[in-house]
Amino acid sequence: MGKASAGLVLGYLLAIGVSGILSRLSPFPPDMASVQLNMWLIAPVWLVVLSACFLFRTVLQAWLWLGSLSAVCFLIITVAGL
Predict the structure, then answer these.
(1) How far apart are the first and last CA of the chain?
(2) Which of 6, 42, 65, 76 might form a disulfide with 15, Cβ 3.0–4.6 angstroms?
(3) Residues in Cβ contact with 74 at an 8 Å cutoff, skipping those fewer than 6 apart
(4) Transmembrane stretches, by residue range (predicted)?
């Protein structure tokens, strides 16, 4: 139950972070196609993280790794948004 909740909560944050990184670092202007790509990218990334969260040995490792990756993604978004 703990690994699944880590994958649900932090996997969603990680998917939002990956989508945000791609939208911030994209060289293209934000037209409808790139907005749609970023929106539709969230679900596959979230499902991959949710599927892979069961590979961690402990619940604590799942929460720490996914939380750290999410924090790094949002840090990159913050720094790239200058």
Answers:
(1) 39
(2) 42
(3) 13, 17, 20
(4) 39-56, 63-81
81 in Cβ contact with 26 (< 8 Å): no
The pair phi, psi for residue 74, each rounded to 5°, is -70, -25
Structure tokens of 59? 């619940």
Query: Distances from the Cα of 31 to the Cαs of 13, 23, 38, in angstroms?
Result: 24, 11, 11
pLDDT of residue 12: 96
Alpha carbon distance 49, 58 (integer Å): 16
Instruction: Give the pLDDT confidence of 33-68 residue by residue, as tens digits.
Output: 778 888 999 999 999 999 999 999 999 999 999 999
Give Cβ neighbours of residue 26 (< 8 Å, ≥ 6 apart): 34
**pTM for this entry:** 0.88
